[in-house]
């Protein structure tokens, strides 16, 4: 019996992590994440993996396993459940808490059975496989690696992993379990590659906790800290630092407030009595006694920090003398938005600290020596680097070769690749459909390439709308009306629009056909040629022909 491993996301990119592991008896899906839209994806809210393969085999899906609660691993779950259907979702206690809230928002709280992962229980039957889970350290509590035992060999998926010897919650990566699994033999390792290019070890989260306390203690006024809403360790570190410095804490941002409440209710975060204050109470407090914890670390236009920076938040505004801590790294593609927010904060007189100037952030992913440690413990026959851009995958592959994995057994693949594991040997199978699906408002997957192309064209050169009327009586004919939006050629803008009106009039007179589509095509071609010749621009041209 052959076991197939098919990544549908997270290969050659950051985000939308999803991997299918299947046999003749069923399918298990590891993670269901989202990605941030890139700048060229105008108007897109979220990017999902393409579910086509899972939709075609929906009846064979036995379970989804979530390695941890970050959006790039769980954000796509509601869409997967709605579009495809999932009987069971397996995750650790905190991850389940975050997922329950997410499913409630989508009206899917009863759409799948939620099962709790307890790594200490050892091997359990899960779908067509025997599964066990290994605790790992990451930038969110309760993260796990997944081990799937099959008749054709053992598969280990590291999840997002870091080897932190001094984690703030005391839960270290269980290296002994990795070694025990390795002793029994591992055919294939799917390893986190995010920091494979970085030499050495990733610093401990404890470094950031100590740094935050120093900054908060020395700050002369208010301190505003932004981080990912799901980074519970970082939120706890800020709260602990504020308490140590006799400051109050105000949490701003719906997702951060929700996640902190979930973590507190489940025992993964603690807040001293009397330390929390509502946003409306900030103005009554002395600035040197205030810490504001907010969303917006990625420069999202509607996030709390961005609105605060541009004085658009209903309760909080930035003041001269404030210290702002960007306690996160920009996700690739978000750098410009983050820098714009930082510059605006400086403009209004705030002091901004980020990872390039102060130890206010460390990664939740292991660097090269940590990845080599995992390789040394697991000793896989084959390695498929995952969770990273191509350069990260190649770097992880090179580390695997250093640790004794044969070059031919390092598998640098792409989304949709199919690896077939038979009797401990991995071979390439036929690729399956994989790609991206856009979420735009309430629509899922209904944005075609032509729509994005039109949006890019609109953003670059604007739109010209030419409204023409057709009359049987030539005496009743009116001159075409030209409406320009986002189209303002330098210099003779009005003159050019007058020329457009003139060429539209001539085109109407020259076209003998009364078929609307034919007239629109002639108008479009004539106006496009004129505008490009005069202004070297290609606006979106919309001829509107009304037969009166």
Write the layout of secondary structure elements.
Blueprint: E1 3-9, E2 18-23, E3 26-30, E4 46-49, H1 52-56, E5 61-65, H2 71-74, H3 77-83, E6 88-91, H4 93-105, E7 113-116, E8 124-126, E9 129-136, E10 143-150, E11 153-157, H5 175-184, E12 188-192, H6 205-218, E13 223-226, H7 232-244, E14 248-252, H8 254-265, E15 290-294, H9 304-309, E16 323-326, H10 335-347, E17 351-353, H11 368-378, E18 382-386, H12 390-402, E19 418-422, E20 425-429, E21 436-440, E22 443-444, H13 449-461, E23 463-470, E24 481-485, H14 493-510, H15 516-535, E25 540-547
Parallel strand pairs: 3-5, 5-6, 6-7, 11-12, 12-18, 13-15, 13-16, 14-15, 16-17, 23-25
Antiparallel strand pairs: 1-2, 1-19, 2-3, 4-21, 8-9, 9-10, 10-11, 19-20, 21-22, 23-24
Helix pairs in contact: 4-8, 5-11, 6-7, 11-12, 14-15
Describe the model.
- Helices cover 31% and strands 23% of the residues.
- It has 548 residues and is of the alpha/beta class.
- The protein has 3 domains: 3-200 and 363-444, Ribonuclease Z/Hydroxyacylglutathione hydrolase-like (Metallo-beta-lactamase, Chain A), CATH 3.60.15; 205-353, Metallo-hydrolase/oxidoreductase (Rossmann fold, 3-Layer(aba) Sandwich); 449-547, Roll (Ubiquitin-like (UB roll)).
- Helix 14 (493-510) packs antiparallel against helix 15 (516-535).
- The longest helix has 20 residues, at 516-535.
- The chain is globular.
- The mean pLDDT is 89.
């Amino acid at each position: 019996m052959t076991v197939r491993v098919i990544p549908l996301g997270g290969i050659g990119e950051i985000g939308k992590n999803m991997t299918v592991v299947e046999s003749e008896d069923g399918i298990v899906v590891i993670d269901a994440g989202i990605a941030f839209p890139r700048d060229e994806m105008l108007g897109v809210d979220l990017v999902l993996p393409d579910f086509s393969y899972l939709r075609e085999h929906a009846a064979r899906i036995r379970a989804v396993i979530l390695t941890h609660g970050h959006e790039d691993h769980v954000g796509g779950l509601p869409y997967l459940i709605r579009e495809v259907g999932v009987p069971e979702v397996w995750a650790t206690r905190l991850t389940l808490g975050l997922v329950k809230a997410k499913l409630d928002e989508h009206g899917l709280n009863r759409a799948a059975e939620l099962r709790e992962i307890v790594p200490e229980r050892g091997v359990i039957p899960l779908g067509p496989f025997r599964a066990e889970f290994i605790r790992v350290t990451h930038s969110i509590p309760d993260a796990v690696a997944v081990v799937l035992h099959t008749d054709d060999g053992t598969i280990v998926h590291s999840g997002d992993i870091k080897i932190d010897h001094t984690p703030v919650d005391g839960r270290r990566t269980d290296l002994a379990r990795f070694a025990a699994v390795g002793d029994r033999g591992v055919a294939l390792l799917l390893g986190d590659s995010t920091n494979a290019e970085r030499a050495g070890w990733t610093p401990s989260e404890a470094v950031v906790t100590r740094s935050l306390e120093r900054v908060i203690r020395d700050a002369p006024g208010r301190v505003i800290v932004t981080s990912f809403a799901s980074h519970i360790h970082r939120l706890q570190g800020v709260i602990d630092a504020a308490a140590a410095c006799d400051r109050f804490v105000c949490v701003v941002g719906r997702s951060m407030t929700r996640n902190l409440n979930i973590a507190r209710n489940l025992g993964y975060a603690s807040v001293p009595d009397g330390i929390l204050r509502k946003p409306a109470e900030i103005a009554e407090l002395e600035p040197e006694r205030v810490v504001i914890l907010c969303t917006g670390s990625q420069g999202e236009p509607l996030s709390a920090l961005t609105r605060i920076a541009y004085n658009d938040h209903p309760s909080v505004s930035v003041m001269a003398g404030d210290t702002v801590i960007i306690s996160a790294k920009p996700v690739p593609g978000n750098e410009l938005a983050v820098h714009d927010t930082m510059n605006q904060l400086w403009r209004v007189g705030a002091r901004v600290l980020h990872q390039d100037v102060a130890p206010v952030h460390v990664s939740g992913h292991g660097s090269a020596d940590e990845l080599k440690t995992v390789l040394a413990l697991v000793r896989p026959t084959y390695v498929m680097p995952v969770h990273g851009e191509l350069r990260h995958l190649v770097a992880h592959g090179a580390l695997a070769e250093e640790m004794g994995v044969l070059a031919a057994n390092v598998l640098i693949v792409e989304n949709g690749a199919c690896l077939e594991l038979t009797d401990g040997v991995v071979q390439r199978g036929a690729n399956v459909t994989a790609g991206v699906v856009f979420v735009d408002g309430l629509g899922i997957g209904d944005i075609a390439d032509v729509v994005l192309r039109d949006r890019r064209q609109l953003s670059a050169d604007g739109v010209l709308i030419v409204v023409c009327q057709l009359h049987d009586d030539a005496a009743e004919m009116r001159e075409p009306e030209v409406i320009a939006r986002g189209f303002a050629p330098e210099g003779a803008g009005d003159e050019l629009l007058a020329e457009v009106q003139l060429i539209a009039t001539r085109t109407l007179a020259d076209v003998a056909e009364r078929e609307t589509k034919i007239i629109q095509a002639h108008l479009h071609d004539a106006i496009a040629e004129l505008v490009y010749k005069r202004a070297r621009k290609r606006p979106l041209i919309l001829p509107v022909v009304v037969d009166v």
